[in-house]
Design a protein that fits this description.
Coatomer_dsu; ER-Golgi transport; membrane; 36% helix; 3 strands; Barwin-like endoglucanases; 13% strand; Asp_de-COase-like_dom_sf; 2 domains; CDC4_N-term_subdom; 2 helices; alpha+beta
Length: 107
């Protein structure tokens, strides 16, 4: 991002195949190689590209109001929520089993 003089929150234009392009907001990802970018499935679909395809990134200074805004969660957030929900469900099941065992011992 430094070579392109892009910073977190900058508006960028990504161009893909067949004259398709889309506007995005630049975010920093330290795990991604310098010559690569990371984009979600919606952006890839809009650009008509697949994983590994070549795209071009341009700084986009003057952007009018957008027609659509789509905010996506990262994989880490989704994974964290799934793990947390799994632990909650396990705890609920465990407490239900304990309650049923206590009910059995009362009679």
């Amino acid at each position: 991002m430094e070579k392109l003089q892009l910073f977190r929150g900058d508006t960028i234009l990504i161009k893909g195949k067949k004259r398709k392009d889309t506007i995005c907001i630049a975010l920093v990802d330290d795990t991604c190689d310098e010559a690569k970018i990371r984009m979600n499935k919606v952006v890839r679909s809009n650009l008509r590209v697949r994983l590994g395809d070549v795209v071009s990134v341009h700084q986009c200074a003057d952007v009018k109001y957008g027609k659509q805004h789509c905010e996506m969660e990262s994989h880490e957030e989704k994974l964290h929520k799934l793990v947390l929900q799994s632990k909650i469900n396990e705890t609920k099941d465990h407490k239900k089993r304990e309650a049923s065992e206590i009910e059995k011992t009362r009679f």
